[in-house]
Amino acid sequence: MKITYISNTDQSEKSGGGSGVNNATIAQLKRSFNLTIHPPINPVSDNIAKIKSFVLKELGLKRNYHFFSEKRLKLITNLFNINTKENVSDAVFFHGFTPWIKTLPNKPYFCFNDACFASYVDIYNNKSEFSSKDLNRICKQEANWLSNAKAVFFRSQWALDETKTHYNLNGSNFYNVGVGGFIDIPEKDIYNDGLNFLFISREFIPKGGLVVAKALKKVRSKHTNAQLNIVGQIPPDQILDQEGVEYKGFFNKSVPSEKLELLKIFSTSFALVHPTIKDTNTLVINELAYFGCPAIASNKFAIPEYLLDRKTGFLIDDPKDSDELAAKMCQLIEEMNQYKQMRINTRDNALTHNTWDKVGERITSIIKQS
Questions:
Q1: CA atoms within 13 A on the CB side of 159
Q2: How many domains does the chain have?
Q3: How far apart are CA 246 and CA 271, in angstroms?
Q4: Are 302 and 312 in contact (CB under 8 A)?
Q5: pLDDT interval class at 257 (50, 70, 90)
C-alpha cells in the first residue's frame, strides 16, 4: 500500500513533543507501507489577518484566530495540491488536524493528533479573547474534515471523547492508539539510590514549576537530602537560588551529546513531578517510565491513562496545591517497599502498552483493515 505523508514539521526535527511524534509516526508507517514523505507544508501567518487580530485585541474587542484564517487554510490546500499533483498513492496520512481542514484529497485519508482544535483553545488560549463566530468557523470545518476521514487516530481516549463532545460526532471512525515516549528505551532500570526529583518542561510556570519548588521546601523540612533537578525552560532566579534545586539545562535530543546527558538524568531520577495545568498528554511520563521512574502528576487531561494511580505513581487532584504534592513526594520517600514495586510496575506498564512499536501496530492494523 502506497501512502503519502503530509506534515507541517520536517522529519529531521526530533527534539521531542510534536516533532518527536512526527518522526516516530513516520518510522512506524515506513515499516508497513510504501511511504512518500512530502516537504513540510507550513506557510507563514496571514499578515493582514494577524494585524487585524492585534488591533482588535488592543481595542478590547473580540479578535479572530488568525493562524487558521481562511486565506492561510486555502494556501495550505493549494500547496498540498501542488505537492501531490503527480502523486499515485493509495491514501494520505496527515500529521495533525487543523491545518488541513480545507484539504480534501481525492483518496482515503488518515490523521493523528493529541487533541482537536476546540480542546486546544480551551487549554492553551484565553477563549474569551476570540470571536465565537470565528472559532465556530474553524470548529465546524474541522468536524466535517474529521467525519470524512477514513480513520482518525488519537493519542488518548480523553482526547477522543473530548472531540466527540465538542463537535457532536458519533466518532465511528475514531480510534485511540496511544502514544510512545521519544527517547531510547534502556535495557533495564539502573536506578540505585538518591532522592533526585525531576521537573522537565519547556514552560516552567504553566507546567507547575513554582508549585514543585514550593513543595520541595516542605519535603526538605523532613528529608534534607531531597533534591530537585530542573530540565527545560530556565526558572526564575529565586528558584535557581533555592536550596536543593539544580538547573540542568535545556537538552536537544537531536544532538548526541545532549541526548546522552539527558539519558543520564533520566536513569538517576527518583520521581518525575508534573503538576501541570496546561496539557493534553505528556510524553515525558512515558519517557521516564521506560527507566522505571514513577511520576506524580495532575489528575487531568489524558494523564490518568498513562499514570496509574498508586501503581506507577500518584495523581494529584489540585495541581496548584503544594501541600498535596509535597505529601505525595514524602510518601514515595517514606514507603520504600511501595516505591520499589512502583518502579517495577512503571517500567512494565510502559513497555507493555506505551511504546512506539505498540502504537505503530495499532495504527497500521487499522489502516490495513480500512
A1: 28
A2: 2
A3: 15
A4: no
A5: very high
Angle value at C-alpha 137, between 131 and 141, nearest 5 degrees:
155
List the grid coordinates of 5.
Answer: 505523508
Q: Give 241-263 as a DSSP string.
A: TSTTEEEEE---TTSHHHHHHHH
pTM: 0.95
Q: Tell me if 205 is assigned to some domain.
A: yes
Where do we find the cell 487558521? Answer: 68
pLDDT above 80 for 227: yes
DSSP conformational letter for 139: H
Instruction: Tell me the per-residue pLDDT of 245-254, one tens digit each, with 9 for 90 and over.
Output: 999 999 988 8
CA angle (201, 244, 278) in 5-degree steps: 20
Q: Output the domain CATH number for residue 204.
A: 3.40.50.2000
Reported as type and span, the H/E element at residue 140 is: helix 132-148
Alpha carbons 101 and 2: distance in angstroms, whole number: 22
DSSP-based three-state secondary structure for 189: coil
pLDDT tens-digit series, residues 86-118? 778 999 999 999 999 999 999 999 999 999 999
